[in-house]
Specification:
alpha/beta, four-stranded mixed sheet, 9 strands, five-stranded mixed sheet
């Protein structure tokens, strides 16, 4: 069995289309989505529509909450107002907002595989690749392999207790290069094989279109790509 897992699309439709095409070429049995579908991308509604229409099992990310107008975990009043303003600028429908808020925190699969956005307890926090062992403790005991997103950096790490944690990297706003990233998981008997794939897309075209569209969401998108 083969599962493709993508995460952190962040409203980047050109990147999502390129990754989807690459996934199709890998002939997976299932495709899973690790959350953060829409926030900070000019094509927020379009990306939600693609994920929903595809019927991919998906989990809730931190910005899937924020984009609905709920700034939970954002502490300062100024940052909360900014989050609420940017959320409104995405213009999501009530139906899309309900869909995002009703996504589960985790999705399990064969071979002791678990997908979450942040940690198994929360979509709002997750360790960086070089974090100390204590920060990975929340992943122990949940599954043999725990896949997460959130930090936009593709990596794999075996914990002291034997759990393997793996980050998908990001489709829409990668922080470890300019190419989109996703994960392929192959089940061979009781074993799981994990392999990252990097996908190029028309990044310059996406930047130009975001500049043409303008507005606060496009500005946040360009900032995330380092193009401001």
């Amino acid at each position: 069995m083969r599962i493709a897992i993508l995460s952190d699309i962040h409203g980047n439709l050109p990147a999502l289309e390129a990754v989807t095409q690459d996934i199709d070429g890998q002939s997976p049995d299932e495709v899973w989505c690790g959350g953060d579908v829409a926030w900070a991308g000019p094509w927020a509604a379009e990306c939600i529509a693609r994920v929903r229409e595809a019927g991919w099992p998906s989990v809730r990310g931190n910005t899937d909450v924020w984009v609905t107008g709920d700034p939970q975990t954002v502490e300062s009043p100024e940052a909360r107002r900014e989050t609420e303003t940017l959320a409104a600028a995405h213009g999501l429908s009530d139906e899309d907002a309900r869909w995002l808020l009703n996504l589960p925190l985790g999705h399990s699969g064969p071979g002791s595989l678990l997908l979450v956005h942040g940690t198994p307890e929360s979509p709002f926090d997750a360790p960086m690749p070089d974090a100390p062992p204590a920060e990975f403790q929340p992943y122990e005991g949940h599954a043999g392999v725990v896949v997460y997103g959130h930090v936009h950096r593709a990596f794999l790490r075996r914990l002291a207790g034997g759990t393997i944690v793996c980050n998908t990297g990001s489709v829409g706003l990668p922080m470890d290069g300019d190419t989109a990233s996703y994960l392929l998981v192959d089940q061979l008997g009781p074993d799981l094989t994990l392999r990252h794939r990097r996908v190029t897309y028309d990044r310059e075209g996406a930047v130009q279109e975001a500049r043409r569209l303008g507005g606060p969401v496009a500005e946040r998108f360009l900032e995330g790509l380092g193009e401001l």
